[in-house]
Amino acid sequence: MNFHKRIGIISLAVGILAAGIGQSPAPVRADVVWDHWTQADALQAAGNSKGAVPHWQFLTDYYASNGDWENAALFSGKLDSYFDEIGDYDQAIYYYEQENKFWVNAGKDWGAVKLQRADQIRTTVELYREESSESIVQALTQPKGSSLAKFEPAYGTYLGIYSEQDPKVGNIFTKMQSVYGKKHAIYLAYAHWGQTFPSSYAKRAKDAGGALQIAWEPDDGLDPVTDGAYLRSWAREAKAAGIPIFLRFAGEMNGAWVKWHGNPAQYIAKFRMLHDVFAAEAPNVAMVWSPGDVPANDIDPYYPGDAYVDWVGVSLYIEPYENGDPSLPSMLATSNVERLTRLYNTYSDRKPLMMSETGVPHYSHSAGEDYTEWAKLNLQRLYEIMPYKYPRLKAITYFNVDQGMSNAKNDYSLSTSSDIQSYYSGLIANPYLLSDVKDAAKPTDHVGYVPIDSNHPAFTKQTRIVPFIKIPDVYIGKVEYLLNGRVISSQTSLPYGLELKAGEVPEGSVLQLRILNKSGQQVALRTFSLSSQVSVDINGATQQFEQPPVIVNGSTFTPLRAIFEAMGAKVDYEASTRTVTATKGSTVVKLTLDQSTVYVNGVAKQLEEPARLVNGYTLAPARFVGETFGGTVNWDGSSRTVTITTK
């Protein structure tokens, strides 16, 4: 909650940067360089910024080649501002990123605001889809080279909320399901060093079948935080609560707006001390280290180390105006998605991430403006795109508060707008958003999500695809979906997404997304390779194969050994003769690879297509494989599913 006390970091950076540009350092007096400089100044003063561009480009390259990073950054700044103003966003992004690089080389962090602007005007179109194979999903959601953290789900994202100021819920957490249609997994409470353990909140969370996130804040700084009777008693009460507790101690420590900022070594020592105390006294407590997403350059020095951190959290908000001030530039083009990237890339290989606090306002009190459409756009990004794009994001806690005219003067509340309440309820109905905290938790439908890319091009049966679309115009007019050149759907309202059946998407298909702005102009067209695969159900259970079924000359080929063994047969293979022998009860089947004749109890039968090796696996026609041991085989073309029934 300390986010709401911070003072215009980005605005301050803009002011510093503007001052730097206004006080240009004395130019080098080499004739060619001086000529470019003076000509650029004259052209800009005459209102001909376009004419000044080649001079700015020369000067940028010249100063960069000489290691004069400040001058290189200043002239890059002139270029990115010009290209941004004329709507040449690709060029603007290039120079914004280059300017940031030059400022970093100069030892200054003034480029952070430029990177933010680059993200605002960057056109992004990505696609994510459902995936029913747990092994594929968990390859993305598991930590690299280590086990799951305390209370970490195998995959999926815990639903969390701060509801104390929600007029429809308050602190009666059991109301969440009736108000929003779904039980939540984590409830947020604030506590302060020196005060007693918030046992009433813990009891209410327990009554609701949930866990508790505690934001524990040392309001008098870190000096009073010591190991003693108070801390030990607090820890024992946490254990007695009998529920999972996520302890977020001294969050947003990277921000100068909190009293525990400014001494990373002291912070680390206190955090480690607390970790050791809770490890001894309260094993139901997971330690959450939770900076704010800005200022980004001050985050890493405060990290206590992998051995002392269970989860990495973050306070991450977006809003129409910086700090609720309509006199500052609009922040509508800033999406929540990109703001997690740096922290995620730094820590997600080692730790699960949670959004300890986050919110999307639908009304700005300071401006008196309604932002319902913008809120819907970013709520979908928060609850669909971010968990799919960042599969190690394992918890999201929403700051459900109408601030009125205090702090950032935004209405983040989910229930003050019936439209937002209904929209939120629809988003969180997704089983991927988990309602129960437990080790290795999973969605009830066992469905995860993967990006549609070269590593995940194919699905089985049916899938839902969800696009992440961001354009400089902010608001999207229409999304058109083209499959193999034909428009199959178009959408003009949120949330965006499309259901597809396998029978609609043959191998080698091409899916395109055409994006139009509110004026009806096409602003993006992206192409994705997408295919479906044949699936096999045996007695109602979908089979998972290392080698999926394939279509050969119009016939469906399925893995022979895997299906025979699933049906209770014993399978042997003789490499010298390339012969497969399968036995179940009194039935013996023999076949040789690449030969059409098979023998069932010594009787020859002919296959339309012979069995063959595919990627080292023996595949044979599905009907033969399913019927050989008495199964009934059917084919569902809409889902491209072979069904085998043996009982």
UniProtKB/TrEMBL annotation:
Keyword Hydrolase (UniProt): yes
SUPFAM superfamilies xref list: (Trans)glycosidases (SSF51445), Copper amine oxidase, domain N (SSF55383)
Superkingdom in the source lineage: Bacteria
Molecular function as annotated in GO: mannan endo-1,4-beta-mannosidase activity
GO biological process, one term: substituted mannan metabolic process
Gene3D superfamilies associated with the record: Copper amine oxidase-like, N-terminal domain, Glycosidases
Record InterPro entries: Cu_amine_oxidase-like_N, GH, GH26_dom, Glyco_hydro_26, Mao_N_sf
Entry keyword Hydrolase: yes
Residues the record marks as active site: E252 (proton donor), E357 (nucleophile)
Any one Pfam family match given in the protein's UniProt record, by short name: Glyco_hydro_26
Ranges for domain GH26: 104-424
Keywords of the record: Glycosidase, Hydrolase
Protein family (similarity comment): Belongs to the glycosyl hydrolase 26 family.
Listed name of the protein: Stalk domain-containing protein
Organism: Paenibacillus roseopurpureus
